[in-house]
Amino acid sequence: MSLINCPVCNQNTTQNIVILDKQPLSNLALASSFVQAKNSFGFDLEICMCKNCSHVYNKNASLDNISYKQEENATYYIGEVWRKYTKDLANEFIKKYSIKGLEILEIGCGDITFLKEFESNQNICTGYEPSFPEKEKKQYNIEIINDYFYPDKDFNKKYDVIILRHLIEHLENAKDFLSNLVTGLIQNSPEAKLFIEVPNLQPTLEECRTNDFVYEHISYFSFYSLRYLLNSLNLNILEMYSTFNNENIIAVCELNKEYKSNFEFVDKTAIGFNSNLTSLNNDYKKIVKKNKTICIWGAGGRGSSFLNIIKNELTQEEILVDSDERKFGKYVPIVGLQITDYKLLKNRSIDAIVITTSLGRDNILLEIQKYNINAKNIYIISTDGLENTNR
């Protein structure tokens, strides 16, 4: 079996903490007989700490050995104290963030104790739980999906709150899962709040509680490693605190507003660039139709780029000039136009000059005036394509 990289930062520089031989699937593989128990298969745990982000995890883990689809799944607690804690936690969160009449998603909803509190407060609730008994689904006014949740496939609607309680510690690559979830947030639910709960590593470390390490848990989060993970995903942490006698960590977060606006800006920018490419080609095609003698001014990096953008519209009859004498006589790659001395345009009548660089535009305009170069039309590159400055 290959060792996995850190589920938080994906590095593989680690320090082993403890190695446990032949540990069973303690919650998912409870035996029905003595013989079955004695013949149960065990897995080695290699608990390590990542030297990059300090996250603790089992680098010898594999989700291939774990299935949560069986109905007899004992990975979630059913004790009275835990149930009360779960209900109180849900109602505290509902009250603090005024959660009413909203779309709620819980991934890994267990026995839906937490989710039921949201449903009772007039919220529309959806839960993913591969082990939830099919026969019990009709008892609740909650959409329960008996399957795993895949963010890149299942995130196809808007949610106001997304809950991940005691889930991400079970994932082989928590960062990839949450990264895909963040992508879903951006596309569908940019204002959603994310409620995350994980076991707290701190008491385990302080008390050397070796038996806290179980094969079903791949990750063991501290405040630092959970914060590191969430920050790396451009999530803004609204609050983070411990609960249940310091045994759990709660994190409430949302998309970082600057990241969200930047992501939206990138989308708009991509549309703008593609529109500009189309406009440059269309505008140059119109220039060719309207003007007989065309001079293109600027053959440096930006000029060469421009020429190759419009290369399919070039007539190869264009006069290509530059202000830098070191370029005279050379040829622009791919398009093959030769660069000549701009001073040769002096006292000549040119139908159109196309200035290819915004950086050198003002200098070129001065040289046109200085050398009395007569151009009926002068075009410069703009957001909308090629703009005629003589209009």
Characterise the protein shown here:
The chain contains ten helices and 17 strands. The chain is of the alpha/beta class and 391 residues long. It folds into two domains: 67-255, Rossmann fold (3-Layer(aba) Sandwich), CATH 3.40.50; 278-388, NAD(P)-binding Rossmann-like Domain (Rossmann fold, 3-Layer(aba) Sandwich), CATH 3.40.50.720. The strands form three sheets. A seven-stranded mixed β-sheet has the order 6-5-4-7-8-11-10, sandwiched between helices. Strands 14-13-12-15-16-17 form a six-stranded mixed β-sheet, sandwiched between helices. A four-stranded antiparallel β-sheet has the order 1-2-3-9, with no helix packed on it. Helix 5 (174-188) links the parallel strand 7 and strand 8.
| Number of individual domains | 2
- Individual helix count: 10
Question: How much β-strand is present in the residues?
Answer: 15-25%
Shape: elongated
Give the class from helix and strand content and strand pairing.
alpha/beta
CATH fold description of the largest domain: Rossmann fold
Radius of gyration: 32 Å
Rounded mean pLDDT is 88
CATH class of the largest domain: Alpha Beta
Strand order of the largest sheet: 6-5-4-7-8-11-10
String of helices and strands: EHEEHEHEEHEHEHEHEEHEHEEEHEE
- CATH architecture field of the largest domain: 3-Layer(aba) Sandwich
Name the poorly predicted regions.
Answer: none
Helix content: 25-40%
What would CATH call the homologous superfamily of the largest domain? Vaccinia Virus protein VP39
> What is the number of strand segments?
17
**Termini separation (Å)?**
71 Å
The description of the largest β-sheet is: 7 strands, mixed
